[in-house]
Amino acid sequence: xxxxxxxxxxxxxxxxxxxxxxxxxxxxxxxxxxxxxxxxxxxxxxxxxxxxxxxxxxxxxxxxxxxxxxxxxxxxxxxxxxxxxxxxxxxxxxxxxxxxxxxxxxxxxxxxxxxxxxxxxxxxxxxxxxxxxxxxxxxxxxxxxxxxxxxxxxxxxxxxxxxxxxxxxxxxxxxxxxxxxxxxxxxxxxxxxxxxxxxxxxxxxxxxxxxxxxxxxxxxxxxxxxxxxxxxxxxxxxxxxxxxxxxxxxxxxxxxxxxxxxxxxxxxxxxxxxxxxxxxxxxx
Length: 284
Fold this sequence. Notes:
Blueprint: H1 3-28, E1 34-40, E2 43-50, E3 54-59, H2 79-83, E4 87-92, H3 111-125, E5 131-136, H4 139-149, E6 154-160, H5 182-189, H6 195-207, H7 218-223, E7 228-231, H8 240-249, E8 253-255, H9 267-281
Parallel strand pairs: 3-4, 3-5, 5-6, 6-7, 7-8
Antiparallel strand pairs: 1-2, 2-4
Helix pairs in contact: 3-4, 5-6
């Protein structure tokens, strides 16, 4: 092969590799807004903002690997794009999501509370008192945790395809036991964390007194006075029965059509309902 041809091929390969890396980085960073870090002691949370208006916290789905990239990948619709025209959209990588940029201690004594610390701490960092929140998948239990911890700060909440408990999850081989792969994936990235620590974390989070929505009781949901909108799902980790029970128990709850994701032509109808719900409860 001539030296000129080798030079051309090498340059082409380098350009392709650079392009691929750029695309991957763009996907990981969410491709939206401006990426920054909020730090509190040993905790470092990567977050992004887009748009303006009343604050809307967007919690990505993906279990314990929830990152901003969800909104340009597996999300049923592109929530940041959809709502940034009317709201100040704020989203973040979950602490210690293996593919994300947020890091901090693995607080196995208080797993759910540590995530609420991050979410409320980010709002404090941004100078935001009241906000609305929309969460997908594991964002459902996170939202109930926020409603319990700071009900006066949450103007309204949307729970889309929320995670919930079903008895089949007692079988470690059940596909809804989404937390089993998180520990090994995190340790591969951060070898200073032990498997014992990650096992204790997920055990305390999902397997100690498991029931309902993991973070609150049915009595709490009955007493919750915050407006909520539930968009139920029915897959192993997103039980329809639990989502509907929340909608029936919460005194100010609304519910979407079901199924709302299939056929895909129904998704815009669900998105319109979310817009109407948020607008109805957006503080002046």
